[in-house]
Amino acid sequence: MAKGLDVGTMNIISARQDGADTVYVQQRNSFVEIEYSDMAEQMLSRSDVLHIRKDDQVYVVGDDALDFANIFNKETRRPMQNGILSSDEKSAIPMMKLIIEQVVGEPDRHNERLYYSSPADPMDSDISTLYHQKTLESLLDDMGYDAEPINEGMSVIYSELADNSFTGLGISFGAGMTNVCLSYYAVPVMKFSVARGGDWIDTEAAQATGTPVDKVTSMKEDDFELNFRTDVGGVEGALSIYYENLLDYVIDRIVEEVDEEDVEEGLDVPVVVTGGTASPDGFADLFRDHLDGADLPFSISGVTHVEEPMYSVARGGLVAARSDEEEQQATAEPAEPAEPAEPAED
Q1: Residues 289 and 143 occupy one common structural domain
Q2: I need a labelling partner for 251 at 20 to 30 A (CA). Which of 125, 206, 244, 295 fits?
Q3: Inside any domain, residue 137
């Protein structure tokens, strides 16, 4: 059974098919370090809290990490930064391995097909995504999967634009990066990322208001709305300001890249926006308003905000993986033997 995996800076999400339903499993991509004691480890184990003990420390991993960070007044640590494995975090790979194992599980069979998301190299940074991509491939292959990377923006198109022959502009607003892909009949015409996303918004808002980053993140995820009716000087007001700035920045980069790629004029392109950073109410309306003023060589037939933006990238990976498996099965099936000829009548 094929699977899709969204390896995000903020969350890691898997998708698999179960009959007519798509099943998602999700864990926050973070951890927090607490001091070890026998009592603490016993309580964690009884509560099914995902954790690792190392020497005299215990690492609480995944969804529980943010809760423990708030209780102990600590900052969570991230295995990933700016959309890729963090070079500053020595525990990045073992923590990622544990979270991925919890999210994706063991393969149903050896070499089960799995597509995992990988960002494009950012156009506004010298960050390379190659080490990140190959490390994840090795981790997943060691688990028994036949793992293949898929561009995050292209994954959005596989997920949301099947009815439009996989033609359109897919934009994934993640925590570490924002990924953009323009596809024409499932062929990428343009793909790139920018090194700004939800983490950039949180950091800027935290610095502007003197609020801890984790608290800003919690407020953003707790019914935050982009309505611009909040009091000036508060965290929500700062979040709105930096959300608007991010959208302008991404749209300007799209205009620049379209000019460089010499995209054919006259196309009528649907746009799909998704990703955890695109979750707040009001995001789609704000994006449409800003996109209307962009100088693009093609027309926009509409802007769709995915109903469940957190799951779009994982679902796109699942679509690609299932397509590969179906093609492999069709190729492997032997041709049916010809019907025996009827005996000739005398």
Answers
A1: yes
A2: 206
A3: yes
Element (H, E) at 31: strand 31-35
DSSP 129-178: -HHHHHHHHHHHHHTTEEEEEEEHHHHHHHHH-GGGTT-EEEEEE-SS-E
Q: What is the pLDDT of residues 193-234, one digit of tens each?
A: 999 999 999 999 999 999 988 889 889 988 899 877 766 778
Measure Cα distances from 229 to 156, 225, 235, 305 in Å.
31, 9, 12, 22
Give yes or no: residues 310 and 214 share one domain.
yes
Task: Based on the fold, state whether residues 200 and 300 are members of the same structural domain.
Answer: yes
Contact 136, 118 (CB under 8 A): yes
Q: Which residues pair with 159 in a beta bridge?
A: none
- One-letter identity of residue 217: T
The DSSP secondary-structure symbol of 225 reads B
Is the separation of the CB atoms in 247 and 275 below 8 Å? Answer: no
Task: For residues 268 and 318, state if they share a domain.
Answer: yes
**Number of domains the chain is built from:** 2
Strands 168-173 and 178-184: antiparallel
Same domain, 50 and 186: no
Nearest to 121 by CA among 129, 109, 133, 113: 129
Which tokens belong to 29? Answer: 């991509």
Q: What is the CATH number of the domain that holds 304?
A: 3.30.420.40
- Give the range of the structural domain holding residue 50, as residue numbers without chain letter: 30-77
Do the domain assignments include residue 119?
A: yes
Q: How far apart are CA 322 and CA 23, in angstroms?
A: 14
In a domain, 298, yes or no: yes
The answer to whether residue 330 is domain-embedded is: no
The DSSP code sequence of 82-112 is TTEE-TT-TTHHHHHHHHHHHHH-S-SSTTE
pLDDT tens digits, one per residue of 275-304: 999 999 999 999 999 998 888 888 889 899
